[in-house]
Amino acid sequence: MSEQKQFFNAMTVLGLLLALGMASAAFILGVQAKHAVSSQQSITVKGLAEKPVKADRAQWTISLSVTAPTQAETIKAIDRERAVLEAFLDQQGLDKSTRSVDVQTLGPHYEEEYIHDNPRQVQRGFEGYQNVHITSNDLGKITAANQAILSLRADNHPVTSQPPEFLVSNLEAVKMSLIAEATKNARTRATEFVKQDGVNVGVMKSASQGAFYILSATGGDDSDNSYGGIYDKSTIDKLARVVVTVVYSIE
Description:
- Helix content is 39%, strand content 37%.
- It is of the alpha+beta class.
- It folds into three domains: 1-40; 41-56 and 168-251, Translation Initiation Factor IF3 (2-Layer Sandwich); 57-167, Alpha-Beta Plaits.
């Protein structure tokens, strides 16, 4: 009888140990599964940062266009008109060191005439072209000269000018500072999204930068995307903007 009791007690202990082991294994597996699921959960958010910037450099192009009966006369005409333009720029306080001049371009000048009511192109002399480029950090002088150049056209000088381009010289530094701020903004947004669910934002799993925007401070922009986004060059006061996309794990 005592042997049966001992056997019964041994079996009871063994059962308890097996139950305890199974419970422990289930707990461990549950925790591991929870961590596995948690590690697979993530949230994707966009972060935005922007700040005002001011152009510190201007580029301006002025074109000369003349017509004359011969090539020699065309070259002389370009030289005369360039001398007038150079004097004008001197008066505007734009030093010669700010200027670069393209090589003169010559070509035939055609005019349309009618013979028996049929139009045809007939060469009448030659055309000459030359561009003068001005680059300056004095944005005020460039702006004033762009307005004053109308007086040359009013005096029948064959000059045309493109609107000045106002540029920001430290774009890379501006972009890097905005990326840092946009990344902080992304985490803030992610935290707001998940705080109602009782979970926390974990480590960053991946991040990518969107386009870099230099916009007009007044809200307008142009279509030049030479810097991987929009780059407004028409205004001095601008707004720099960066958008990033960040994926965070959920804990």
